[in-house]
């Protein structure tokens, strides 16, 4: 089984996916690699940033390169859960109600500006993200595989936003900030072609079946006892630290290991190093911790640095 997965791993075009994405979204290779690692780890991604830095383009780009069916949900303050999940409509011909599926039934779902919707509408994603199914009108319906949610949210200082509750933040394996491009990349972006047209013309580098193989290969990456001890030490530090209201849960620890396995796979290895955990930790851990302090990208970076400095690699 392991040898078969290793053969499949060698044939995966993951580097080609990254290269193609890097050619469109300039100067953000690390962020693109984290987003792809999140998908390989079967997680979901939250991107917080100001409008216009490429959040929506990233979602469409990954869907195109991976050959996935995608949909976009524009969250607004008057949105209802049925706008996400779907609704039953009476069919006069057959004299019965027929369920019309909502945009959640796609392989890549872009939940755009999720924090502009009320908590009631936001909660429509909870079951989908955790159990990859939705329950509507007493019937449970499975979602397609693979299933990946990329949610974007505006900074909280903007008018008309509703902060995501901790329970929903925990459903996101990673939280990223793209930020502004460097000067050279931004000049190339201004002088180049329209990115939306470019993405629309791209063909898939792989297909859903290939992505499922990649996800299986990521799950099979070996984590030694020493790596697991290091991961557990990080969990224990957050629980013992007085800086945080509560520490990381076991689910957060499992997510950290899944993300590190996916990062190792993208680096061409079938084993996890402590450096893999350190690389993905800033995206996986800070949004799960409540410190009562700065919740901006800078505050999250400070939390990650505090944890990495405090927990030694043994």
Topology, pairings included?
Blueprint: H1 2-10, H2 14-24, H3 29-40, E1 45-48, H4 55-65, E2 70-74, H5 82-85, E3 86-91, E4 96-101, E5 108-112, H6 119-122, H7 126-131, E6 133-136, E7 139-142, E8 148-153, H8 166-169, E9 174-176, H9 183-191, H10 195-201, H11 208-219, H12 225-240, H13 250-266, H14 274-284, H15 297-310
Parallel strand pairs: 1-8, 1-9, 2-5, 5-8
Antiparallel strand pairs: 3-4, 6-7
Helix pairs in contact: 1-11, 2-3, 2-4, 3-13, 4-10, 11-13, 12-13, 13-14
Short structural summary:
This protein has 314 residues and is of the alpha/beta class.
Tell the overall outline.
globular
How far is the first residue's CA from the last residue's CA?
Answer: 31 Å
Q: What's the assembly state of these chains?
A: single chain
Helical amount: 40-55%
How is the largest sheet built, in terms of strand order?
Answer: 2-5-8-1-9
**What structural class results from the helix and strand content?**
alpha/beta
- Write the element-wise H/E pattern from the N-terminal end onward: HHHEHEHEEEHHEEEHEHHHHHHH
CATH topology of the largest domain: Rossmann fold
Instruction: Please name the CATH architecture of the largest domain.
Output: 3-Layer(aba) Sandwich
CATH superfamily of the largest domain, please?
P-loop containing nucleotide triphosphate hydrolases
Percentage of residues in DSSP E strands: 5-15%
CATH class call of the largest domain: Alpha Beta
- According to DSSP, the number of beta strands is 9
């Amino acid at each position: 089984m392991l040898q078969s997965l290793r053969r499949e791993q060698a044939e995966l075009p993951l580097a080609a996916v990254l290269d193609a994405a890097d050619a469109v979204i300039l100067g953000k290779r690390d962020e693109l690699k984290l987003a792809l690692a999140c998908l390989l780890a079967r997680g979901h991604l939250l991107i917080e940033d100001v409008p216009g830095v490429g959040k929506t383009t990233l979602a469409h780009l990954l869907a195109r390169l991976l050959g996935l069916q995608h949909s976009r949900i524009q969250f607004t303050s008057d949105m209802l859960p049925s706008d996400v999940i779907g609704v039953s409509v009476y069919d006069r011909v057959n004299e019965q109600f027929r369920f019309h599926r909502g945009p959640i039934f796609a392989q890549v779902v872009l939940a755009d500006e999720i924090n502009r919707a009320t908590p009631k509408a936001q909660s429509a994603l909870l079951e989908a993200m955790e159990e990859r199914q939705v329950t509507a009108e007493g019937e449970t319906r499975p979602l397609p595989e693979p299933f990946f949610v990329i949610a974007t949210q505006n900074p909280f200082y903007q008018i008309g936003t509703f902060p995501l509750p901790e329970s929903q933040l925990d459903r996101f394996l990673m939280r990223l900030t793209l930020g502004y491009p460097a000067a050279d990349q931004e000049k190339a972006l201004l002088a180049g072609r329209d990115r939306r047209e470019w993405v629309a013309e791209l063909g898939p580098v792989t297909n859903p079946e290939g992505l499922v193989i990649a996800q299986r290969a990521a799950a099979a990456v070996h984590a030694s006892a020493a790596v697991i001890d290091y991961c557990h030490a990080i969990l224990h530090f957050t629980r013992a630290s007085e800086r945080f209201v509560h520490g990381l849960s076991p689910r957060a620890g499992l997510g950290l290991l899944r993300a590190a396995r996916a990062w190792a796979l993208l680096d061409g290895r079938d084993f996890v190093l402590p450096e893999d955990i350190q690389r993905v930790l800033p995206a996986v851990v800070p949004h799960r911790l409540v410190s009562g302090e700065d919740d901006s990208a800078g505050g999250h970076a400070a939390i990650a640095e505090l944890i990495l400095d405090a927990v030694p690699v043994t």
